[in-house]
Amino acid sequence: MADAHISTPEELGSDPKPTASYSENVPNADAEKGYRIPDTAHIEHVHRRLLLKTDLAIMPLTALLYWLASLDRGNLGNARLQGLPQDILGGDPGGGLFALCSSLFYISYILCQVPANLIVKRFDPAVVIGISVFLWGVASSSQAGARNFGGELVCRLFIGVFEAGFGPAIPLYYSYFYTRAEHGKRTALFIGSAAFAGAFGGLIAYGVQSLSSPPIAHWRILFLIEGLPTCIVGLLTIWLLPNRPAQSRIYTAEEKAVIGERLGREVQVETDPAVRWAHVKGALGDWRVWVMGMIYQSLNLALGSISSFLPTIINTLTPSPARAQLLTVPPYAAAFGTMLVSAFISDHLAVRGPLVALLLLVSGFGFMMLLIDHTHFSVRYGGTFLACMGTYTGVPLMMSWCAANYGSETKRAVALALMIGFGQCFSVVASFIWPTTDSPFYRKGFILCMTWSFFGAALAALLSTHFRLTNLARDRREGRPEKGATPQTGTLADKAPGFRYMW
């Protein structure tokens, strides 16, 4: 794509009001070249091309990475139907060993998220993310060689450790390039690849299951097919993924200036990658971060259940494991479509909380339908659609909501990691609420998912109201934010005058 051109005053036919120079907005600027930010109207004219350039450089690759992560994270559920418990878990009649394997991923993932996000903040994000992807690919592929319960457990542990340097980092990484109103739909495309992975993972598992007389067990082939490509893509990521805009080779100096001006309308563009420890403390002590974590818990109880146990749940509706794998595809596809539509609406309205509340209600009603007698195929299968649509769609909106509301890069990094980590504690819980002894009704799992979905909906509505009222109070105290003024969020985070929360 040709570089976006920013016209000179002579080309514009007028003398645009001078604003901050390129060197004042973007680090490592060449001030002698005299680049100046043109007026806002002209920036809006050129920024669409710049946005497309950014999207092409970032979105396909990061969506592919999350697609691979979701395959590597969720294929344990498919492997369960392909003989893994019988081969290395001693049959696992109660399902307890499988639950431990599933949950250990989340334990290491949760514990490593805050330090991993601070590393992404401090160092080149493309390098940190690429190395993380490569190493979790190695751990995922290694599951094919597991000979006993301990071997599988170690592999799952390290998948969690290395994915912690990727999952929470991407919403933070997007905030280096996109405004808050552009964040939701892109996070939805990113997370949407997980729903697509669920559908595609079911197709892969169905294909592997159909192999007759393979040289090794079906589940070992599955781990290799889905793990080895991750290693290759991880190495390519180090080279292909742009670093921060100011250090990226894909932008001209003029384009870097435009990115700095656009982001500067909402937050201060930070030139120092150092961690601000006062903001780390501020995020840890901010009750709203923890409430967001509780909302995210309600999503993750359902998400953890769906990603690991949807094939098992659907297998109660049909006697054929292969058909059960195939029937997982439509609910994931529906979730992907709902996710994109909801994200576009949310970005257009610049609203997050009310939509999150609505989606959690949809998820809760889906689990309510699954409580019906398991002989009612249509009703219960329809419930899997609502559960997937509400759960998967709510996740990217929560990530974008959190990324929008904490001002500085450091507080944003810690808040995202805390919300995601605290929320995913319930992904661990999800591993233990579907024991095989509850088959075929699984009432415990469905009741807990339904209850927490409704609870999360209530919290989202209340927190959204709080942010809205806080904005109104600041308007009364400070007046409406001055157009074009940059809140000093680098120093004051979300406490900066002129900063307003997205509700």
UniProtKB/TrEMBL annotation:
Q: Which keywords accompany this UniProt record?
A: Membrane, Transmembrane, Transmembrane helix, Transport
Q: How does it sit in the membrane?
A: Multi-pass membrane protein
**GO CC annotation: what is one?**
membrane
**Compartment(s) where it occurs, according to its Swiss-Prot or TrEMBL record:** Membrane
- Record keyword Transmembrane present: yes
Q: Where is the Major facilitator superfamily (MFS) profile domain?
A: 58-476
Q: Which GO terms describe its molecular function?
A: transmembrane transporter activity
Chain intervals for the UniProt region annotation (Disordered): 1-32
- Which spans are transmembrane here? 50-69, 94-114, 126-145, 157-176, 188-209, 221-241, 298-317, 329-346, 353-372, 384-406, 413-433, 445-467
InterPro entries xref list: MFS, MFS_dom, MFS_trans_sf
Protein name as annotated: MFS general substrate transporter
